[in-house]
Amino acid sequence: MTIAASTELICFLILSVVIIAGGIGIVFLENIVYSAFLLGGVFMAIAGLYLLLNASFVAAAQILVYVGAVNVLILFAIMLVNKREDPKPIKGLQLRKIISAGVCAGLLALLIRVDLTTPWSLPGPTSIGELATERIGEHLFTDYLLPFELASVLLLMAMIGAIVLARRDVLITDVGTGKEVNQGLIEKATSPLLIDKNSSS
Amino acid sequence: MPCLGALFINSQSLTAPGELLNLSLNAWAIAPEGAVLIAMLGTLLVDLAGEKAAANWAPPICYVGLLTALGLLAMQWNGPLESSFLGAFLSDNLAIAFRSVVALSTLISLLISWRYAEQSGSPVGEYAAILLAATLGAMLLCGATDLVSVFISLETLSVASYLLSGYMKRDARSSEAALKYLLVGSAAAAVFLYGASLLYGISGTTNLQAIGIALITSPTPLAALALVFVLATVAFKIAAVPFHQWTPDVYEGSPTPVVAFLSVGSKAAGFALAVRLLIGCFGAFDNQWKLLFTVLAVLSMTLGNVVALAQTSMKRMLAYSSIGQAGFVMIGLVCGTEDGFASMVLYMAAYLFMNLGAFACIILFSIRTGSDRISDYAGLYQKDPLITLGLSLCLLSLGGIPPMIGFFGKIYLFFAGWADQQYLLVIVGLVTSVISIYYYISVIKMMVVKEPYEASDVVKNYPSIQWETLGMPPLRIALVTCVLVTAIGGVLSNPLFQWANSTVAGTPLLQQAIALGSQINIG
User: Fold this and answer.
1) Which is the most buried residue in A192, B10, B200, B367, by most CB within 10 A?
2) B119 to A150: CB separation less than 8 angstroms, yes or no
3) ipTM score over 0.95, yes or no
């Protein structure tokens, strides 16, 4: 084994351990701030995997978007909602945990089995390295032109929707009749079925 | 057909710089979506002039945009079958039929929304713009033939739906609905991406047709796993049991016109996606996905119709009934015969009118009374004959009572299922139809049979009927149109049958699947 190959292997092993340990930590740590920081670490390690695959543009995009935007946004959300409140105990939590652990273990077993039985075509396509940026740009303006343009509509709509939901200046009159309104559902809240039956009988 | 696939693979590998730039985009295929997009931008611009201007000008802009889209779709009917955007989109008859259903459902949903949005004090312009964006996503989803376009259009539809279901931001129920929908929907999108990445890994292409060919030549266990993941997303979108848990809560908390769109437009897009993915891509796993879909259909019909019996809220009842109706439509998809596909398209069109008619009636009732409890409808025929008549006709049609359009749709579905020897599905369908008639009729009984002194307090204090308020005339037009089509469409359904049949005839994808299916039967 050459020095290059063994270095690559060592890097891959370290990154994999970081990703798996970080992923487990995100799920199991009680403090959500630690989870958020671990998530940032996992994103960075995934960017490292992309670098190992010689996909530097994807790695840079991963760091910019996931670490720079998504993870920071999560931290902001945690900081804005600094309400200390103990969650109400959920009935049958232990049973639910066991069931979901069973489902996840089953899925993992299935994935491992499929992974071992599938005849993978190895080695995969050779990486094109620095040309990747150019190639991605070509794809965006040829065969992925439609999704690329649609993404702009998606972003515009998401922005407008976020503004509508977040802005405070609310309309308090009905444009048609001039009556005061409260921006709620027209249907008034109703009591659930069981209470209803008990009160009427 | 394989030679066409080889051509596709060639064009995929032809990604040398400059070569692809000379190929024709064939962008005319998405002209209807362009009309919707222009209407959306126009609505947003008008909205800058203030709420009053938006309330006056947004409706006509939306009508013009959607009607233009429908006109352009009609012009594309039976047009040349060229893949546009280098394999990202295909405007075959199936896509046109489903896009028309989506556009028409948006048009009717908008007609019935104005008064509702104004009476709740929500900004009207942005509401219309977001609904049009959802329509754009749903329409592109119907014709998308590439995993990337499928995903982006699916997300456009989903994100717009989350926003719309949380649109009544001062109401906790609406926020709860939006949050639940967002969380479950994001999980479904993640599962879809996982499945899609597996498909890309197996075949090395994102084109659905090329993936289909790759799966036929080398079916691996990995592909079966991808099938399960993709199927889960489709089932989430059409709200099939057991992927339905979001439906009742979201339907109850969302603004009612949004529910009308979600139950018809979004579902139609989901079925188009199912056809594209399952028939176009997983042809090699025909038996597997049909078995899974049979299970989903049986569960949906049974659970949807049985749980609907116990509901006291009209919106919740229609939510469960829509789960059951999706189960009926799935019979057509499972058959895979010419009649099966045609009956699926026909039932989707019939469902559009009868379901939106029912929603128009319950929206009108809640605008006048502020209630959607079934018990509050007691004795309504005394005060409001129009709602009583319209709701009765639409519910009878949903239940499949003879002269209505729903009866013909349902009988065609069951006929197609029986001819294809799907006895289990047809028998479950028949039994659950009878159950559904029970709860539909109990609403009608509540409205019609009660004596005046038995009427609910809401009906006793019923306001005088006025149609002059801003936004009421469109609601009346939508209501009367839907009810008329539901009532008369059944008797004059021949054009609809022809339309459904030529949809199937003009779609190479479906013809191929039918030919394959009949070969297996003969052999």
Assistant:
1) B367
2) no
3) no
